[in-house]
Amino acid sequence: MWEAIGGFSVAELDEADPAYRRWVVQMQKARRLVAWIAEDRDGTPVGSGAVWLTEAQPRPTELARWRPYILSMYTEPAHRGQGIASAIVRAAVDYAKERKFGRITLHAAPMGRHVYERVGFERSWEMRMRFGRSAPRRRPRGSRRRR
Fold this sequence. Notes:
By secondary structure, this protein is α+β, with helices and mostly antiparallel strands. It has 4 helices and 4 strands, in the order H-H-E-E-E-H-E-H.
């Protein structure tokens, strides 16, 4: 997913992988992360996505301690446009609705925004400030880093 988004060196991606794997295991053990994996007919993973229950401050109309957040959405390039991502997003939305959460959020990469809009997500505003690292470098469209 991060390689497809772009702007990260191979060293940065390699450093992040084990940290992410440890985090996923920790969140799953705490029952704060659920994930979906789509497979092709041969059982090869072709898409995935997850919901992480983030801790949230109570606010009017939303008193729950946890708030669902969609993350780690990815579909293999050869399988894009077949509804895989949309099905995973719908499963994530259903998961949140069944548990009576008041909303579900995510941060969409430009390549996936149309998926979320089709499912019914509305664009919102976020501001950020980075420390210690410049903004991710963009690769030219069509270029592909080899690993």
